[in-house]
Amino acid sequence: xxxxxxxxxxxxxxxxxxxxxxxxxxxxxxxxxxxxxxxxxxxxxxxxxxxxxxxxxxxxxxxxxxxxxxxxxxxxxxxxxxxxxxxxxxxxxxxxxxxxxxxxxxxxxxxxxxxxxxxxxxxxxxxxxxxxxxxxxxxxxxxxxxxxxxxxxxxxxxxxxxxxxxxxxxxxxxxxxxxxxxxxxxxxxxxxxxxxxxxxxxxxxxxxxxxxxxxxxxxxxxxxxxxxxxxxxxxxxxxxxxxxxxxxxxxxxxxxxxxxxxxxxxxxxxxxxxxxxxxxxxxxxxxxxxxxxxxxxxxxxxxxxxxxxxxxxxxxxxxxxxxxxxxxxxxxxxxxxxxxxxxxxxxxxxxxxxxxxxxxxxxxxxxxxxxxxx
Amino acid sequence: xxxxxxxxxxxxxxxxxxxxxxxxxxxxxxxxxxxxxxxxxxxxxxxxxxxxxxxxxxxxxxxxxxxxxxxxxxxxxxxxxxxxxxxxxxxxxxxxxxxxxxxxxxxxxxxxxxxxxxxxxxxxxxxxxxxxxxxxxxxxxxxxxxxxxxxxxxxxxxxxxxxxxxxxxxxxxxxxxxxxxxxxxxxxxxxxxxxxxxxxxxxxxxxxxxxxxxxxxxxxxxxxxxxxxxxxxxxxxxxxxxxxxxxxxxxxxxxxxxxxxxxxxxxxxxxxxxxxxxxxxxxxxxxxxxxxxxxxxxxxxxxxxxxxxxxxxxxxxxxxxxxxxxxxxxxxxxxxxxxxxxxxxxxxxxxxxxxxxxxxxxxxxxxxxxxxxxxxxxxxxxxxxxxxxxxxxxxxxxxxxxxxxxxxxxxxxxxxxxxxxxxxxxxxxxxxxxxxxxxxxxxxxxx
Amino acid sequence: xxxxxxxxxxxxxxxxxxxxxxxxxxxxxxxxxxxxxxxxxxxxxxxxxxxxxxxxxxxxxxxxxxxxxxxxxxxxxxxxxxxxxxxxxxxxxxxxxxxxxxxxxxxxxxxxxxxxxxxxxxxxxxxxxxxxxxxxxxxxxxxxxxxxxxxxxxxxxxxxxxxxxxxxxxxxxxxxxxxxxxxxxxxxxxxxxxxxxxxxxxxxxxxxxxxxxxxxxxxxxxxxxxxxxxxxxxxxxxxxxxxxxxxxxxxxxxxxxxxxxxxxxxxxxxxxxxxxxxxxxxxxxxxxxxxxxxxxxxxxxxxxxxxxxxxxxxxxxxxxxxxxxxxxxxxxxxxxxxxxxxxxxxxxxxxxxxxxxxxxxxxxxxxxxxxxxxxxxxxxxxxxxxxxxxxxxxxxxxxxxxxxxxxxxxxxxxxxxxxxxxxxxxxxxxxxxxxxxxxxxxxxxxxxxxxxxxxxxxxxxxxxxxxxxxxxxxxxxxxxxxxxxxxxxxxxxxxxxxxxxxxxxxxxxxxxxxxxxxx
Lengths: 374, 447, 519
Description:
Shape of chain A: globular
Number of domains of chain B: 3
CATH topology of the largest domain in chain A: Rossmann fold
Helix content of chain A: 25-40%
Oligomer: heterotrimer
């Protein structure tokens, strides 16, 4: 580290994450469910995961300042590991809640930490995202049942190593989706995921040899190239449905149009027709126009439909037709899939089958790949 | 070893190639020479059918020139360490990397520029890549070149500019020249340049030998219209000629063959590209850029490729054009050559070349029926025109050949407006006796 | 203890040589020139009088001023700090085919009969070299099944670019200007994508099936269209896996109206075993500085020999060497040629060496080269299979042809040591670093050795023992690998500078300026 002042690592642990899973529950959000979990004998797993991650950070203990929240929201785990953390904020007695997570995040923001390392699941990620947005880089140690967001490392150990590398200026950040499943729907066996927003997450750019310092510029450049490719190919007599995501919305930005990052927009002849439409509005538009749908990969599991863009329902897809669906993604994003196929998960098995096979994905200007869709 | 693999024969391993793809007869090749002695004798015999530029008096130029190669240069590029190394990193191949950095550094001094890349295949390819760089930087698709450009280089540049149907097509337009001096017509340049022009490219010295003295004016016209100015040079002239960066060039390219590399029947070429050290240029280089780097323990220096993501090795086709194996060994030769010559040597050789080439021109101009074009401002090459037209250049050269002289390149079909003409190259390897012999041979040859 | 199975106490040369720009003394010279004769000086006067005033160089270039022995010493030392293939068991550098370059071939290309030839010499005076080029082209035709060859491209990528230009020209001649897409595969060399992109094509890359490591033919079927211009592929791919359905792939492209170009950079295992022609390819290229023994020369000069089927011969760059029964000629009269891809005829020194090599090998010799390479590769796989932390990518493909991609993913998971760390450590044992992979790294933590035909069983055993030792170190003492190298001329470098405009320096003068140093 070349800076005079030490880097600051903010640690937030959600102590009740993951307790649901061990007793067969789908998450621990909400007091009712948490109570049930504890009754069933669930034990907290976050603390041990936190320690596993922190062990990797120990070697640079003396070069950083570890800032954390009281008791089992970080203080206890940090001390157990051998750190002497700076503890900020206040915590009431009793079980912790999402509001505590949000308070902790606000406290980290005020302390101007260089990186927030949190231990939890999608719910925790959501709480932090609400407060932080893109103001600070955030990295998740997976410790929940719901791990759909793209903001988590593969395991606690990796999280620790990534945090160290980031604090040593070896990595840059990438915007990753914060997803969460609609809990009510999920417990009634209906899957409905929502895209809540984006966090800036440190990542190892597998694209660059040796240096592992992919510049944020190259990812931006790729997204830009993809936007140009789509725009150059646009035909006047088509309606273009632009799905959620930073990769897709780059098209809107390039055209200077207003857009809904987490929603679906429609444009025609490079002008905005409708913004943030729901399924009903979308169907109406698609009935009247020749349409092309532009979607990207959302979430860490590789979904192109069914996570975060349910407005583009099976009925819409059916009307538009397989040939008019354009998938865009950076090769970086594809690399994170590690060879796993892209996924389609609408409420219609027929429509899901429609897209099965090999699809073209736009990865740059004049660049495509053929990739499997399951 | 087959035992260790648990197979009885190679055929078991070859099962992964389907039968229909297998080649089922022995290759029809000549019976091999078993001994090294026989092989060497065979090839020596073949090569002895050639007449070399040591046996004949050679005045050919045009992109590949006969200069003296110092013994130390040959010694260094014969070292097995350098001959057989390839892509090792800065730790195991530190010497190679340092030599490359030293090449870039010395060329930087010669060119008065801070960013120089490792050379590509030859001047022509370097020019082609430079044009594409300019196109990307300016976002435009038109190139202006002088009519006096080397036709071979033009052909290569055109291949880099893509055909009309392609999206990235770069139109190539030629600009007229003054038929008395060879210099570019600034009038015509102003006429043809527009907001579509990505770059103006010219060569100095020109393919036709003369020194283009309007560099300042040309680059001003280019810049006024938002175009890049690209200049191609012969680096052995830069001891005495002003580097293009000082008359407005944004991108400079050129040929390293004169810097201590044997002609090798045209295989001794290498083309460098250089610019200012600004990210807008650095990010567009297709070729490798070696940067120096400090070490973790503070001792010595290491090296590595700068902004490696640009090249195809890191981001596949998103890279800026392509590079690959180019001319590492020749780069080393050029580095050693420049070190041997030093600041004074490079100046002296330029002066000597000019004196000898002008002496030759003077002798030839005294022959009846011979005229020298574009005098007196030329470097090592000049145009000889046969005014009598009783003999074609081809016939003259055949005649010279009988006298053991390789006459200048016949450029009559390349530049018909010059008539029966020929491009002569004179360097530091031509003594006074050689030049006088040329004059008398030529006099006989055109009779 | 068996001396042969021990690892040597290797240490690299450490000369700590300054940068040449820091060396020398004012007034020293390495090279003197002949005095210009008085008669010349008297007749022409000063050189400056022939240079227009504004073109006369004002400053002097600040080149080093060194005496000859110091120059020799400096570069000899730098050569000692370079690990040429001739010095080591260079198995790690996969796809590069680091095989033996017969020493006698160096003597041949240094003969004045070759080195002192000018490319514009009258045909009459270069019959010898034209004969060599002509016969070598005939050898290449036999080896590949292609009709005609050019040796103009200066390297593999350049060869691919030439092929892309010819594909472009072919479709243009047929009026099919709509064909603007080239298909390639992820494990083909990146040049198979970058070069056609430079030639103006859009590129579609087929990603591999995670089980087989090869693209699925369904992916190809989904990729072809009326825009398909051609298919540019390496086979065996960089993983060492041979695509057994390659001819089916070719058929699909032909049906769609495209041409097929074969990147034969990995041809070392195929001599006399499989050819471009039988697989249906229309064109191909070979790296003469790889399988054909021309040495690598610190990254060139090289040659990307390009061969085409009869129907495409008219598009080859000019000139082509022809023979009329008694004399050899340079044929420039080819109206449909794409022109030139570089000046002159190419790096003919590589052609001379490769010609000599084939003349010393013959048909049986070449066959033996490939068989040895295949046996060596599969032997290496067997030997390395019990080294902890190492796994073979796409393990279902058990037989590899000329090279094989491994992964150190397990090693990284268990010990935190990754492939870049191991690459830096391996040189401490006196072997060249290994090649990891081209990008993107679909196989995580990759490395790619290629034993080719030169190395013996003992050599391969030794190399595998080095990997084994490093694996042991990773589990016991990973720090030694993370901080490697330890016995090289320098320690680990600060790589961040290479991407930082305020820190990178391509010339010494830039370095002095940015790092505010005095020389």
